[in-house]
Amino acid sequence: MAVQYWIGDFFIDLSRNQITRKEQYQSVAPKALAVLTCLAKNHGKVVSYDELLSEVWPDTIVTPNTLQRNITQLRKALGEDSKVQSYIKTHAKQGYSLECDVQWSNFNDPSLTTQKIEIEALTKIEKSDTQNSLLENIHESDKSPSSNIEHSSSVLKWCFAIMGIIILMVMAVYYFTDKQPTPISFNKLRSLTATDDKEFGAIYTPDGNYIIFNRYIGELCTNNIWAKNLSTQQEIQLTKRLGSYSGITLSGDGKTLAFVETEDCRKPISQQKCYNLMSLVFEKSLTSPQTPKLLMQCKNSRISTPKWLDKNHIALFQKNLNRWKLINYSLIENKSIDLYEIKKGNLIHFTYSSTEDLIAVISIHDDDKYYIDMLNSNGDLLSSNEIKYPKEISKFRFIYPDFDPLSKQLVFSSGKQLFMLSYDGKINKINFPMDDFMGAVKFHPNGKRLLLIKARYDSDIASISYQFSSLKESSLESEKNLEHSIIERSTLAEEHAIFQPNGDLVAFVSGRSGENQIWITGNNSLRKITQFPIDSYIQGLNWSADGESLLVNLNNEIIQIFLDTSHKNFPIEHRIEKLFQWNSEQGTALLMIRINGTSKLVEYNLISSEFKVIKDSGVKWALKSEDGRLIYSDNTNHFWQPGPAEYQLIPLLSGQNILDRFLIKDNVIYAINAENKLWSYDLDSGLLEIMREMPDNIDYLTDISETQLLLELRISAKKEVVELSSSE
């Protein structure tokens, strides 16, 4: 069957999901077009509801409301409604029929209807000329020489006319057919900010004259919003007070900023933070810093990534429990409506193109694969295609693309590499080497420049020696000033340091060789035992009980690394969010994995590839004690332990806001709170002790032995705004 056809003067192009009339085209969801095509194949006949559902949604259970929504969308595209049924007629309790002539075409020109009419008219004229010439040839012997010359001239004109039609058709096909995205090339990189603070979340203003960005002040977890004039290089503080701001977006007319502010909830219900949608008048803020205006507050859900759709509407993500959805907030009505969500899956990222009025959503579907879903600003799904990851990108990596204003494609960074993403899910590499991690792509309105955030993190591995008995039995006030010693140092990050069981080695992660690799230190030696590819990231490692190998969360996949540098892969089909603990003797691992787009705490059997879900959502960190008790902390920093019928809260630990993770040794929990104090909690006696002050620049407590604590110390954390451009 042809992928293009006409219904009256509407041109239907299935290959592009478009309906065109009088040089105006509309994008229509593929399922809606499938319904229309089914009706077109049976035009003039009633097609039952069951037949339509079976044809368009085979092997899928959907409700009649789904069909009704697609019919409504088609009627809107065809300029009719339920009362005026010029094309699609409703037959009560029976089905629908298409009451219009249908003309199928194998003509590959997806052009406008007027182009088709012109070509058909020319074709009819040429058919008439051909018939007249044939009639003249019957009596050719009766013609005079002059008439033969006239006849030859007519035939020649006819040939030229045919050639002209062919040329017109070829030109039409070339002009109206989508061209392949033009490869992007960049050759210039320059810094736009250069301070001791951290700049992030940068965007251009619609006129391209300014960049707007967040700037952290020192080591505080708060920031102000700034602007920089790209001509004068003047930097201007826009917000009057420090806050926790993120997700800057500027309205299309360049007048109003919107962003998310995160703050502590005074009366937390289901989360410790409140999320506020705020706004600023940009021009006024350029004159003097302004206090942001509250637009919307969320106390029981999380919001992020606001994007202006028009001057009165903002699209943004909203998260309830463990699932994100896309909503549309109306400034005039002060309320929001749902635009798009996936019931069995989750949304990862979205971006908006005002020039095309398109929303691109990166999502995980119920097959645990990543998709690019294209929507219009009303939330109608236009297309959904699986993203085809190339070998340069790990298969579970999240991507965060931005629209390229000059072509129908998006661009994203995987860390040290840039890629183009097409609307149908194809990825192509952009050849531009990056020696540091760069992300958060944002295009200039002219499409020839883009912003990136360049990040460099430097941390060291330190140790503190002590007697374990004194750590359990006293508050260590006498050891308050005990110094720590650095055991591994470079100008890049050293992290995840852990002691070898019954040995003298320490395993850790470092990027000192250019890429994140696993290193082993001890016995006066240092060596690298892995050769991971570019853009590799490691999120947790655990020693085996015999100290001969390590289990590693590499690029959200589990791999076992042996000290002789050999390795073993575990083909787990789900994305590994976190590796908490490994029991090598039982062959099990405590993991956080994504199933249908949502995170779940599971105990995974690496031998049988079976797993048991322990907790559906809300787990921050989890470990098993030596006697087998599972302890976990949630996103509100509460601790839980097993009870007779269900997990029970540990009340004494509710006020000990930990930085991120905790350790368990000999049935005692150890962690560092937000005031940088080491505390312990004995699971058997229920005794809580505040033990000692820790260094101010500590990031994590990574391991504990009978005589030492291992720490990850932050030396510097640098983020700056850079601009990538082409010399063209």
Question: Notable features of this structure?
Answer:
14% helix; 728 residues; 7 helices; Neuraminidase; mainly beta; Arc Repressor Mutant, subunit A; 45% strand; globular; 54 strands; 6-stranded antiparallel β-sheet
Q: What does this protein structure show overall?
A:
The protein is mainly beta. Among the domains are: 4-105, Winged helix-like DNA-binding domain superfamily/Winged helix DNA-binding domain (Arc Repressor Mutant, subunit A), CATH 1.10.10.10; 182-340, Neuraminidase, CATH 2.120.10; 342-438, no CATH class. The strands form 13 sheets. Strands 9, 30, 31, 32, 53 and 54 form a six-stranded antiparallel beta sheet that branches. The protein has a five-stranded antiparallel beta sheet with strand order 4-3-2-1-8, with helices on one face. A four-stranded antiparallel beta sheet has the order 10-11-12-13. A hairpin with a 2-residue loop joins β19 and β20. Residues 106-153, 170-179 and 468-481 have low confidence and may be disordered.
Brief synopsis:
This protein has seven helices and 54 strands. 32% of the residues are buried.
Strand count, sense and closure of the main sheet?
Answer: 6 strands, antiparallel
Give the total of beta strands.
54
Overall geometry comes to globular
CATH topology of the domain at 182-340: Neuraminidase
Mean pLDDT: 83
List the total number of helices: 7
Which structural class do the helices and strands define? mainly beta
How much of the sequence lies in strands comes to 35-45%
Low-confidence stretches: 106-153, 170-179, 468-481
The percent of residues in helical segments reads 10-25%
Radius of gyration, CA atoms, in whole angstroms: 32 Å
The CATH architecture name of the domain at 182-340 reads 6 Propeller
Q: What distance separates the N and C termini?
A: 45 Å
**Name of the CATH first level of the domain at 182-340:** Mainly Beta
Query: What is the CATH homologous superfamily assignment of the domain at 182-340?
Result: TolB, C-terminal domain
